[in-house]
Amino acid sequence: MASDLRRRTADGSAVHAAEFIVSSARLGELHECSALLRHTRMRAAEIVDEARTLLAEAERHGHADRVRALREQLEQARRSYSKVLDAYVTICGKITDERQAIMRAQVEPDRRPGLSGVA
């Protein structure tokens, strides 16, 4: 059995299989993070909308002190939303990169050394 493992490792198939498993697991984790960030992003957008609504209400009623406080809260909510959105975009980029790496890894073992692909 040991010789079988060495033979599989010699041509790279065992290594490629292990790399594929690791990449697939990493892609799964990235998708889980993406789902969590998507939910967080949606909730952050709701909070921004709620803060905007409260501010408009305070402005209509002429509550100057409340308007100042709500403006600051709205800005804080927008900053937080921006951070969540940046994280979400980053995770989406990492998902795309990981998918491309998996696709490249699946194509590379099929290539024969010395052939250009045009042949």
Short précis:
This protein has helices at residues 2-10, 13-61, 64-107.
Care to describe what's here?
With 119 residues, the protein is mainly alpha-helical. The protein has one domain (11-110): Four Helix Bundle (Hemerythrin (Met), subunit A), CATH 1.20.120. 86% of the residues lie in helices and 0% in strands. The protein contains three helices and no strands. Keywords: Coiled coil.
Can you tell me the residue ranges where pLDDT is under 50 for at least 5 consecutive residues? 1-9
SSE string: HHH
How many angstroms does the end-to-end distance come to?
Answer: 37 Å
Question: What's the CATH first level?
Answer: Mainly Alpha
- Counted up, domains total 1
Structural class: mainly alpha
Q: In percent, how helical is the residue content?
A: over 70%
